[in-house]
Amino acid sequence: MAGEDYPRTYQQLQDWFRDDAACLDYLARLRWPAGFTCPVCGGGESWRTKQGLWMCRACGRKTSVTAGTIFHRTRTPLSTWFAAIWFITSQKNGVSAQGLQRVLGFGSYETAWAWMHKLRRAMVRPDRDLLSGVVELDETFVGGRSTGRIGASSDKVPIMVAVERDGPRRLGRVRFQVAAAPNTLELVEFATATIAPGSTVRTDGARMLRRLADLGYTHEYVDGYRAPDPAAVLPGVHMVASLLKRWLIGTLHYGVDRAQLPYYLDEYAFRFNRRSSTSRGLLFYRLLQQAVHTDPQPLPTLVRPFYQADCS
Ligand SMILES: [Zn+2]
After folding, report:
1. Using the 8-state DSSP alphabet, how is residue 212 labeled?
2. CA 245 – ligand 1 centroid, Å
3. How many other C-beta atoms lie within 10 A of the C-beta of residue 280?
4. C-alpha 288 to ligand 1 mean position (Å)
5. Which of 89, 121, 153 is the last residue of a domain?
6. How far is the CA of 68 from the centre of ligand 1 (A)?
7. How far is ligand 1, taken at its centre, from the CA of residue 57, in Å?
8. Which of 104, 175, 244, 271 could cross-link 194 (Cys pair, CB 3.0–4.6 Å)?
């Protein structure tokens, strides 16, 4: 609840999180909602050391609330991280690394860049729910900057999109994934990974998609090639795709590095799926909650993320 579980305003954020101790308390509530449990002996009783660690009363083991999270061994005050997360989530369309650098007064662009990328890694819950109900499924293409690999000819990257139809006019949640190549069975794999069995899946008329009917879905398809207006065939996907492209251009200003594209898709889905949230503070809360359940992201893995298409 706003003002109780998470700050309502920036002023409140500053009042709540004046020092690291206050930030650590908050992170502990998010990381251990049922209370601290010692990872060694399972004991629930602890006291706080001067260094801000949780020390088990039974066995003496010291535990850091930030260890094993994206805040692992950070040398920046946690209140600065909280301000960054507030800034990123309170802007409806997000911010660029330059914007973050400016507002936090970072000396280096690289630091702001790394923070943006670390937080993007926390924007997807690994255990997120499957889409359900009526879901539109298709591919779109977005422009991408090739990473300089010889032979990286195309700068258009195929993106798979699944979006729920919430009634005739409204859209529900969305999922995206970069495809290794367009028009392959990967789209069927994507469907089974993101859409709950029993759902109705609407697609164009591509023949390979007919097997969705054998995979536990009600498959509705139209022959997209014959449709007079392609946007009318899968209007939900069409709308989400155009919003995504506008966001990529507007927020990032430059072409997106292909290797980073999956993480930009995660950020856009995070924002899109919470677009009707009345309180921006709730996004702050969610991102922080996911950040304490996200593994540390050392710089080398941010700069050179594993990318499927490079291995194919
Ligand atoms: Zn213990």
Report:
1. G
2. 50
3. 20
4. 26
5. 121
6. 18
7. 7
8. 175
46 CA to centre of ligand 1 in angstroms: 8
**179, 219: one domain:** yes
pLDDT digits (tens, 9 = 90+) for 198-228: 999 999 989 999 999 999 999 999 875 555 6
Q: Ligand 1: distance of its center to the CA of 55 in Å?
A: 8
Based on the fold, state whether residues 160 and 231 are members of the same structural domain.
yes
**Number of folded domains in the chain?**
2
Q: Which of 59, 86, 121 is the last residue of a domain?
A: 121
Residue 270: CA count within 13 A, CB half-sphere: 30
CA 42 to ligand 1 centroid distance, Å: 6
| Residue corresponding to tokens 């809360």 | 285
Residue with tokens 């049922």: 34
Domain identity same for 33 and 98? yes
Could you tell me the pTM of the whole model? 0.87
CB atoms near residue 258 (< 10 Å): 22
Assess if residue 310 is contained within a domain. no
